[in-house]
Amino acid sequence: MLNKANREIPMDLPALAGREVYQGEFAVEPKVRRAGRPVAKYNQGGADKLLSSIDEAIEKTGLTDGMTVSFHHHFRNGDYVMKMVMERIQAKGIKDITVASSSLSPCHDFLIDMIKDGTVTAIETSGLRDALGKFLTKNPGVLKRPVVIRSHGGRARAIIAGEVHIDVAFMGAPTCDRRGNFTGMQGKSACGALGYAMVDSHYADKTVAITDNLVDYVYPYSVPQTDVDYIVEVEAIGDPEGIASGAVGFTKNPVQIKIAEMAAEFLDQAGIIKEGFSFQLGAGGAPLTVAKFIGQKLKEQGVKAGFGIGGATGILAGMLEDGLINAIYDTQTFDTVAAASLHKNPAHIEMSASMYADPWTDNMTNYLDVVFLGATEIDTNFNVNCMTDSNGVLMGASGGHSDTAAGAKCTVITCPLVRGRLPMILDSVQTVITPGESVDVIVTERGIAINPRRTDLIERFKDSNLPIYTIEELQKLAFDLVGKPEGVTVSDKDEDVVAIVEYRDGTIIDVVRKPLD
């Protein structure tokens, strides 16, 4: 079936039975009620939630074959929790587990062996990278159903709507008290905001907090004791060097600097930079460096932005410290500078993944004036891919890309025209993560393209000194430089679908097929 993003979706796949295809960014109305965890009876004298081991937690939660376990990815490539838990599940001989993690990093490549022995038979996530991504791309059928890729907002929506039922959430807790209140702002494994853990802990049947810093009292907390059933204390839950860098800085790449400078100038000429405007910056070099130029524009105009949304970085925290913005709303924190800001600055506000981007609630993305996002490739219909590489291999993340693009009044994609001698503007992207109807502007180092849907912007920039092109003209510039790529050949067999890409509302926007090259 052809969806509105012009992608052919094999609806006869068993995994897609009863599902709907993508029909537009705001086409689907919710028809469900919020799910809820079972009511548990606790000892009125004060239940002792502290257990002796992960093994005991597995037994107490009743985890058995065929269940779904969840993890959060706030520790990024420094995560120890998933491996500790999954190794004990494997040792107990428990099989047919669905791993529903908010994202997966290279440190989770150990799952390959667990897939091979049947411990893990399904994966639902936002991101896949490195050896695990390659393994799943090249081995369709190794899982009992294709991987499900969701955006951060889409995942929160699916959990809250009951589409993803978490039997046990194993949550890394950098600092936890004996009643189960925990936070990511303190401890040797501090990671900052715990926006994904908030949703999982609240809706899972059972939640286990795994901590390496057990204290008497935690306040403020990210997750309350009412959402935690058991606590396990271990030696370490993560590697601080992998959890967060010292500070995510501005890019030194001249191409990215040029893109960032041009993007900020576009914003200024569009009249978006003004008192109280709100924005989000992607985590890449060019989107982050836009902050530097936004800051300069704010100072020149003598105005102050309203708020920034994170994934927070030290760059965003610096803007708050310098009085350039009023507040930061943070669902995950990328570096130690931003984590410290969250802990000490009351205007740096932690929020759940639902408050961030759940399309079926009053989320913060709907209040964005502008968002800057990156891309691995774009096509002439303004569709964006940030999930698969030029060979069709799973190597990225859906993240909040489609969420923020749909919510913001202006979505700006920053991307080099050519990357590694490959043109970034194609006739058709390999995988659609964000549909073209959500994208307004593309900024490259060679020029800017405005989506024809935005006739207001086209009119405003008809006499601009900026290099404004059509998307086809930008594509031709790239082809003239490096030639037209042949593209990736993929299998057309339904059994070779390796991943299903959900749009944020749960409809199917694309599938990832096994490459034949």
What would you note in describing this structure?
With 517 residues, this protein is an alpha/beta fold. It folds into 2 domains: 197 residues, Glutaconate Coenzyme A-transferase (3-Layer(aba) Sandwich), CATH 3.40.1080; 235 residues, Glutaconate Coenzyme A-transferase (3-Layer(aba) Sandwich). It is 26% helix and 21% strand. It contains 15 helices and 27 strands. The protein has a 10-stranded mixed beta sheet with strand order 1-11-9-6-2-3-4-5-26-27, sandwiched between helices. Helix 9 links the parallel strand 12 and strand 13. Helix 5 packs parallel to helix 6. It is globular. The two termini are 25 Å apart. The model has no long low-confidence stretch (mean pLDDT 95). It catalyses: citrate = oxaloacetate + acetate; citrate + acetyl-CoA = (3S)-citryl-CoA + acetate. Pfam families: CitF. InterPro entries: Citrate_lyase_asu, NagB/RpiA_transferase-like. This is Citrate lyase alpha chain. Keywords: Cytoplasm, Lyase, Transferase.
Summarize the SSE layout with pairings.
Elements: E1 50-51, H1 54-61, E2 68-71, H2 81-91, E3 97-101, H3 111-116, E4 120-125, H4 130-138, E5 147-149, H5 152-160, E6 168-173, E7 175-177, E8 182-183, H6 195-203, E9 206-211, E10 214-215, E11 230-233, H7 240-243, H8 254-269, E12 279-281, H9 285-301, E13 305-312, H10 314-321, E14 325-333, H11 336-344, E15 348-350, H12 353-357, E16 370-373, E17 377-379, E18 384-385, H13 401-407, E19 410-414, E20 418-419, E21 422-423, E22 425-426, E23 441-443, E24 448-450, H14 455-460, E25 468-469, H15 471-482, E26 497-502, E27 508-513
Helix pairs in contact: 5-6, 8-9, 10-11
Pfam family, one: CitF
Catalytic activity: citrate = oxaloacetate + acetate; citrate + acetyl-CoA = (3S)-citryl-CoA + acetate
Organism: Veillonella criceti
